[in-house]
Write a structure and sequence with these properties.
By secondary structure, the protein is α+β, with helices and mostly antiparallel strands. It has helices at about 1-30, 80-100, 125-140; strands at about 50, 55-60, 110-120, 150-155, 165-170. β3, α3 (about 125-140) and β4 (about 150-155) form a beta-alpha-beta unit. α2 (about 80-100) packs across α3.
Length: about 170
């Protein structure tokens, strides 16, 4: 009887670990999202650096998988809703680079920090509403493990006139 109990416990933990490891990618699939392979870096930097249990992800812009992107100034050329969508694209790029670095999004213990930069008109003040596009996606994919500390700032310009750029720090197993 004791052997059955030990086996049952071991099976429970194995299933729990497997379910946890598959949950983020299963959630993406459920949302109809397929992560594209990360694009190569355009300069002398890498998209992700792992040190210990932390992965630092370089800024990712509002680029679609086909190479087109959401560009322009939020509050002038783009609405808050369009900025929100741009921030979601940044999150997808970050997840793509993160998966390439760690192999499986199930290894994510916690999204620690997000810095969202919004290319915005000088009078625009709703930067947090824009960066929510990234934060909302991370929480949808990772649940409570996706909740993070965050800064959302407006900037005068971003490379190639992209609407949003986001960088992220993640703790992994």
């Amino acid at each position: 009887m004791k052997t059955l109990s030990v086996l049952t416990t071991a099976l429970f933990f194995a299933l729990t670990i497997t379910a946890r490891a598959q949950a983020p990618e299963a959630k993406l699939k459920e949302m109809g999202i397929t992560l594209a392979a990360p694009s190569p870096s355009l300069a002398n930097y890498v998209k992700a650096v792992r040190t210990g249990s932390l992965v630092y992800l370089s800024g990712h812009v509002s680029n679609r998988a086909d190479g087109t992107g959401i560009k322009g100034k939020v509050g002038k050329d783009l609405s808050v809703e369009q900025g929100y969508e741009a921030a979601k694209l940044c999150a997808l790029g970050l997840l793509s680079s993160l998966k390439a670095e760690v192999g499986d999004l199930g290894k994510v213990k916690r999204v620690v920090k997000v810095l969202g930069m919004v290319n915005s008109a000088p009078e625009f003040a709703d930067h947090p509403k824009v960066v929510n596009g990234c934060s909302d996606l991370l929480v949808a994919v990772f649940g409570d493990r996706g909740k993070h500390a965050r800064s959302a700032v407006g900037v005068a310009a971003l490379p190639s006139d992209y609407a949003v750029e986001v960088e992220m720090i993640v703790e992994v197993e």
